[in-house]
């Protein structure tokens, strides 16, 4: 017993080295995976999709607040405030989607490959949203109805990603990111 106590520091130090070595191996493999073109592209898609969803959620929540109010004067005030805020909300979302678009386009992929075609389809979806934001900045009342092009480009992007050859984790991520 006494002998183990004297070696506790040595065993702790050895254990720490083993854990640190394993941890750095995990971090190294994750860093390596994160640099794969498909993962970098999916990071850009995730950035774009979360921005689009945040925008829709904000607008929807504000409409819900208007509809939940029974006082006509308060409804008018809330609607006026929403219309005043839409241009800024759209401008912020537009900037984020433009950044995600630049990130997506910066990914090096073989021209004409399935992943390249999926990226092109998704960039077209980003462009449709950018046009939607541009319109909302000049005509805020237009947020009531999203242009059909937005949904059409989304469907094409989903189909294009469905034709790619991704690993199981990437496919699951695409499914989660591009769920309706």
Question: What's the short version?
Answer:
By secondary structure, the protein is mainly α. It is built from six helices and no strands. The longest helix has 35 residues, at 72-106.
Protein architecture, described:
The structure is a single chain. The chain has 180 residues and is an all-alpha fold. The chain has two domains: 1-35; 37-177, no CATH class. 83% of the residues lie in helices and 0% in strands. The protein has helices at residues 2-34, 37-68, 72-106, 114-138, 148-162, 168-177. Helix 4 (114-138) runs antiparallel to helix 5. Residues 1-33 have low confidence and may be disordered.
Features:
180 residues; mainly alpha; 6 helices; 83% helix; disordered N terminus
């Amino acid at each position: 017993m006494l002998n183990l106590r004297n070696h506790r520091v040595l065993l702790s130090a050895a254990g720490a080295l083993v854990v640190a070595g394993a941890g750095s191996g995990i971090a190294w493999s994750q860093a390596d995976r994160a640099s794969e073109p498909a993962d970098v592209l999916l990071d850009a898609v995730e950035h774009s999709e979360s921005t689009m969803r945040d925008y829709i959620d904000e607008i929807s929540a504000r409409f819900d607040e208007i509809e939940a109010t029974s006082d006509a004067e308060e409804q008018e005030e809330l609607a006026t405030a929403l219309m005043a805020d839409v241009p800024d909300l759209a401008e912020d979302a537009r900037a984020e989607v433009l950044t995600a678009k630049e990130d997506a386009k910066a990914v090096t992929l073989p021209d004409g490959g399935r992943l390249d075609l999926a990226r092109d389809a998704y960039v077209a979806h980003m462009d449709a949203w950018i046009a939607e934001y541009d319109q909302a900045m000049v005509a805020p009342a237009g947020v009531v109805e999203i242009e059909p092009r937005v949904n059409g480009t989304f469907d094409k992007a989903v189909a294009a990603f469905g034709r790619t050859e991704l690993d199981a984790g990437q496919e699951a991520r695409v499914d989660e990111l591009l769920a309706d």
